[in-house]
Every structure is written in structure tokens, then in C-alpha cells.
Amino acid sequence: MADNAQIIEKARELGKLVAQSDEVKELAAARAAYEQNAELQDLNGQFNLHKFSIAAISKQENPDEQRIAGHEDKLREIYDKIMSHKVMTEYQQKSAAVEQLVGQINNIINFYITGGEQSGCTGSCATCGGCGRGE
């Protein structure tokens, strides 16, 4: 029978393996590219300025709805630029890959804890995040 210390040690080992995975390494590189991209950082700054402006105007006794709407329009425009930027889409893809890997690990652990399928299992491994049986 495993004691808690053994379980924690295995969790640490698993965490180290995940940290060394290609998915995590690629995510770190994509995060660095995102953080170092001057255009994206400028867009983030503009986004935050408009967000703060909306908050400040909204707190006024008689908020100017036209000014708020103008800032909201700019927010949407800037948000669309950020989300469609090549560096941001790469970052999101790499982040999703890590989330999928962690989800597969959680599904495998849950399978062994509960002895059964996680809710929502269709029985098709082709559409599954992974329970470990079909891999």
C-alpha cells in the first residue's frame, strides 16, 4: 500500500517529467516570444489604457456613455489585433497543448482512482483527451 509520502514523491517525479516535455518547452519559448514582442506589448498597453478609461468614466456621477462606447470600440479593435497576431496565436496553441497534456494526465489519474470512466466518455478514443487505455 502506498503512503502519502510515496504518492507525493511520484507526483513530483511526474511534474518534473511534464516540465521537461516538448509541450512545456515550446510553451516557454512561445511565452518568451510573446513577452518580447514590442508590437504586442504596445497593444496590451493600449488595451489597458482604454480599460482604465472606461472604469474611470463609469465611476463618474454622470458617466458619458458616448465616451465609454468609444473606448469599448477601441478595446474590441485592439483585442482583435492582439488575438489575431501570429505570436499570440502561437502562444495560445502551445498553451492549449500543455492544457491537453495535463488533462490527459488528470484523466488517467481519475481513472485509476475511481476505477471508471470520467463522465462524458463516449467510448471513442479518437475524440478523447485521454484516459490512458487507448494510447
Please, could you describe this protein's structure?
This protein is an all-alpha fold and 135 residues long. The chain has a domain at 25-112. The chain has 5 helices and no strands. It is elongated.
Q: What structural category do the secondary elements indicate? A: mainly alpha
* Estimated helix fraction: over 70%
What's the gyration radius in Å? 22 Å
Query: Would you identify the regions where 5 or more consecutive residues have pLDDT less than 50?
Result: none
Ends distance: 27 Å
Share of β-strand residues:
under 5%
Main sheet specs: none
Q: Give the CA-based shape.
A: elongated
Number of helices: 5
Q: Which series of helices and strands comes N to C?
A: HHHHH
Mean pLDDT: 90
Strand element count: 0
Considering the chains and any ligands shown, give keywords for the structure:
single chain, mainly alpha, 5 helices, 0% strand, 135 residues
Give the gist of this structure:
This protein has 135 residues and is mostly helical. The chain has helices at 4-19, 22-36, 38-59, 65-84, 86-114. The two termini are 27 Å apart.
List the SSEs and their pairings.
Blueprint: H1 4-19, H2 22-36, H3 38-59, H4 65-84, H5 86-114
Helix pairs in contact: 2-5, 3-4
